[in-house]
Amino acid sequence: AGHGPVGGEALFEVTERYLRWVWELADLLDAERLVGNLHRAYVELTDSGPLGTPIDLLDSFREMVEFHGGLPDCHA
Hints:
The chain is mainly alpha-helical and about 80 residues long. Helix content is about 55%, strand content about 0%. The chain is built from 3 helices and no strands.
């Protein structure tokens, strides 16, 4: 099985451009939001459900905290 043939060096360049694009789109002040956005994108881009399908918020928040290295500061 797998997801297709093994890619060559050109794949690294494409992947790097994609990751730089994602990084530029991320809210750098709250970079942990990228984790939640990826959860949402995964559900919407796979057969996990139609647009608006609920995601596991607790799981997403746990991963956001882990990515951030602890609970984010609240500036409210």
